[in-house]
Design goal:
73 residues, mainly alpha
């Protein structure tokens, strides 16, 4: 089957459009995934991390109090 130059160019152009749409879709999906993961990190993991840091501070304060008690009696 012989195709003329116009048909070949239109086919190639159409294929490029389809590939560009596919790349856009994959990129959009990836950015959406990153946005969701970032939201989860900020709302869940960061809150837990702050709680752990506060607990560490309380433990250090308690340790300092015990050390003062041992030293001063």
């Amino acid at each position: 089957m012989k195709l003329n130059i116009q048909t070949k160019l239109l086919g190639a152009f159409g294929l490029m459009i389809v590939l560009m749409i596919a790349v856009f879709g994959v990129g959009f999906w990836g950015m959406n995934t990153i946005a969701n993961d970032t939201t989860e990190i900020v709302t869940v993991d960061l809150v837990e991390d702050i709680g752990v840091r506060e607990l560490e501070v309380l433990i250090l304060e308690q340790t300092a109090t015990y050390e003062d008690f041992v030293i001063t009696g």
